[in-house]
Amino acid sequence: MTIKLRAVDEDDLPFLYKLTSDPDHTGIHQWYGWQNPHRLRRRWEDDGLVGDEGGMLIITKDDDRAGFVSWRKQITSRASFSWSMGLIVAPEFRGKGYGTEAQKLIVRYLFDHSTVNRIEAATEIGNLSEQRALEKAGFTREGVLRGSGFRAGRWHDGVLYGIVRADLDGEL
C-alpha cells in the first residue's frame, strides 16, 4: 500500500469541502453540520493551509485523493506545545488501512519538521475503527474524555491518544 501526503492545491478545495461539510462524505463521527463554503478557500489563500498554528495535507493513493490529515497547535505550557491531529478518509478508501498509514506519515512529518515532543489525537468513544487505526500507528490510549464533543444534538465521550518522540526511538 503506497499512500503519500502532499500540499493542498486550489483544485483540492471542493474535495476538502465535501469531506468536511457533506454528511454523505464526512462519516458519522465527523458530521458537525454545514460549514461556511468560503472558509477553506480563505485559509488556503492566506497560507496554503500550512502555517505555524497548524495545517492540512492531502492523502493520495496513486493519483487519487483519498482524504486529508490536519493538525493544530495545542499550548501545553508557557514554554511548550503539542500538535493535535486528525484525518478524514474519503468513503471509497475507508477500511483499507490508508488512515493508519496517513497517521504514521503525519507523525513522522510533524516530528521531522518541528521541535514538538508530543502529538495527540482524539476520537469519539464509539469510533472503534479510528481507535484501532491510532493504535496501529503507534499511539497510546491515554484516557476517556467524558462529554467532550457535541455532535448530532448530544454530548459524546471521547478517547484521547498520544505519541511522543521517545515512542519512535530507532525509527526517526
What's a concise summary of this model?
The chain has 172 residues and is α+β, with helices and mostly antiparallel strands. Helices cover 27% and strands 40% of the residues.
Quick one: CATH superfamily?
A: Gcn5-related N-acetyltransferase (GNAT)
Termini distance? 21 Å
Overall average residue pLDDT: 91
Based on the structure given, which CATH architecture is correct? 3-Layer(aba) Sandwich
What integer value in Å does the Rg equal? 16 Å
Shape: globular
User: How many domains, as an integer?
Assistant: 1
Helix content estimate: 25-40%
H-E string: EHHHEEEEHEHEE
Structural class by sheet pairing and helices:
alpha+beta
Low-confidence stretches: none
CATH structural class:
Alpha Beta
Count of DSSP E strands? 8
Structural write-up:
It is a single chain. The chain has helices spanning 13-21, 23-26, 39-47, 98-113, 128-136; strands spanning 3-6, 50-51, 54-61, 64-77, 80-89, 118-124, 140-151, 154-164. With 172 residues, the chain is an alpha+beta fold. It has a single domain (3-168), classed as Gcn5-related N-acetyltransferase (GNAT) (Aminopeptidase, 3-Layer(aba) Sandwich). Strands 1, 2, 3, 4, 5, 6, 7 and 8 form an eight-stranded mixed sheet that branches. The radius of gyration is 16 Å and the shape is globular. One of its GO terms (molecular function) is acyltransferase activity, transferring groups other than amino-acyl groups. Keywords: Acyltransferase, Transferase. Belongs to the acetyltransferase family. RimJ subfamily.
